[in-house]
């Protein structure tokens, strides 16, 4: 796949001048990866700029592969994790997506809401310089727990790590979001755009995001599902259920949205996973 993302003129110029100066494409890709571009995106950008087929940049023929970790997709029909059974109600391959029917118990959902409530603030998004900011596209209130902050958070993080076969330290702090009627999260990707100016800063710790787990802490009276508009799928928000989706550092089919709550309220907890260990003090 060639790059559909806008390529910054300075990057385009740098790729052209470096290859014209006699440096190999492998060397260009290696330098891009050292400055924080992920291997797949850098191949796609270089192929676009040099107008060559992406197959000519086959990673198996390049010596510069530095793959991060990937999550293991949960296997239907069910998984036993530390004495807790999780049932997989739906599986898709593109995007890689699983609906988990009973990831959290009702008691865990209630306790998470209780622990998060006093700390809620208007939810923020990460801007192009890597800073958090208020964003009109995201009208909910939210908060972050730090990794392992309470025994409950620790237990949930361990469950996620075991289910997805990825160490706990690849996870960002668990985020809880609260939506009221009319509030939503407009369509977005959870992975970071390698072309945005703050990409290197955002991915300096932990690298790219590779997968997300959105856990539903209550059942809204109407609305509030998680929609995947590229594939026409909406996951119902239901207490204790969760949706897992993986995007391997950048899959456009993983576009998703928190649909407006129509009646009642909606509570979720989101865990984002990185390809390398993530340190929370980079936020
Ligand atoms: O509210 C939802 O259903 C989706 C939340 C989401 O996309 C996120 O937290 O990244
Ligand atoms: Fe998201």
From TrEMBL:
Keywords: Dioxygenase, Iron, Metal-binding, Oxidoreductase, Vitamin C. It comes from the Bacteria. This is 2-oxoglutarate-dependent dioxygenase. PROSITE patterns: FE2OG_OXY. GO terms for molecular function: iron ion binding; L-ascorbic acid binding; procollagen-proline 4-dioxygenase activity. SMART domains: P4Hc (SM00702). Its cofactor is L-ascorbate. Residues 56-78 are annotated as: Disordered. InterPro entries: Oxoglu/Fe-dep_dioxygenase_dom (IPR005123), P4HA-like (IPR045054), Pro_4_hyd_alph (IPR006620), Pro_4_hyd_alph_FE2OG_OXY (IPR044862). Residues 170-275 form the Fe2OG dioxygenase domain. Pfam families: 2OG-FeII_Oxy_3 (PF13640).
């Amino acid at each position: 796949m060639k790059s559909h993302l806008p390529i910054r003129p300075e990057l385009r110029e740098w790729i052209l001048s470096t290859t014209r100066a006699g440096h190999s494409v492998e060397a260009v890709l290696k330098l891009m990866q050292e400055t924080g571009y992920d291997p797949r995106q850098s191949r796609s950008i270089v192929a676009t700029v040099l107008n060559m087929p992406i197959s000519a940049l086959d990673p198996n023929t390049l010596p510069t592969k530095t793959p991060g970790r990937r999550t293991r997709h949960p296997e239907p029909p069910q998984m036993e994790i530390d004495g807790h059974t999780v049932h997989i109600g739906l599986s898709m391959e593109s995007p890689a997506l699983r609906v988990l029917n009973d990831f959290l118990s009702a008691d865990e959902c209630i306790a998470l809401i209780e622990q998060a409530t006093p700390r809620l603030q208007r939810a923020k998004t990460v801007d192009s310089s890597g800073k958090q900011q208020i964003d009109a596209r995201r009208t909910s209130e939210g908060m972050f727990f730090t990794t392992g902050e309470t025994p409950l958070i620790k237990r949930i993080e361990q469950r996620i790590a075991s289910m997805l076969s990825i160490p706990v330290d690849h996870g960002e702090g668990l985020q809880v979001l609260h939506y009221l009627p009319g509030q939503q999260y407009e369509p977005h990707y959870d992975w970071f755009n390698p072309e945005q100016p703050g990409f290197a800063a955002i991915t300096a710790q932990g690298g790219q995001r590779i997968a997300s787990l959105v856990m539903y802490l209550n059942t809204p009276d109407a609305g509030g599902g998680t929609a995947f508009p590229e594939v026409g799928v909406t996951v119902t928000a239901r207490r204790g259920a969760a949706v897992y989706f993986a995007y391997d550092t950048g899959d456009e089919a993983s576009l998703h949205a928190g649909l407006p709550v129509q009646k009642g309220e909606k509570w979720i907890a989101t865990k984002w996973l990185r390809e390398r260990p993530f340190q929370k003090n980079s936020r």
